[in-house]
Design a protein that fits this description.
This protein is mostly helical and 89 residues long. It has 5 helices and no strands. α2 crosses α5.
């Protein structure tokens, strides 16, 4: 059973996870449009995907990930793709 102190620790750790430097956030805001365009156009075409932010496209991304990465660490190590996946979807 989770104690009150454990709950407080979790809240503190969650807060730390979501704190990002303002500079990084501003960079993300500036780059998001070009990342979205690249990911939903160039990346999608190169990988034969239809990425339109629908539920079906989420299934397509999931299948693509499962077919292209043997283990989660492989995706984590592919920082460029991980950046697009986590920035867009």
């Amino acid at each position: 059973m989770e104690s009150f102190n454990d709950s407080k620790k979790l809240e503190k750790s969650e807060t730390k996870i979501w704190r990002i430097p303002r500079k990084n956030f501003e960079e993300w805001i500036i780059l998001i449009d070009s990342k979205m365009e690249y990911f939903t156009d160039v990346f999608a075409k190169e990988n034969n995907l239809k990425l339109d932010f629908s539920i079906v496209s989420l299934d397509e991304i999931e299948n693509w990930i499962l077919n292209n990465y043997r283990e989660i660490k492989d995706l984590i190590n592919d920082t460029k793709t991980l950046d697009y996946l986590t920035s867009i979807y």
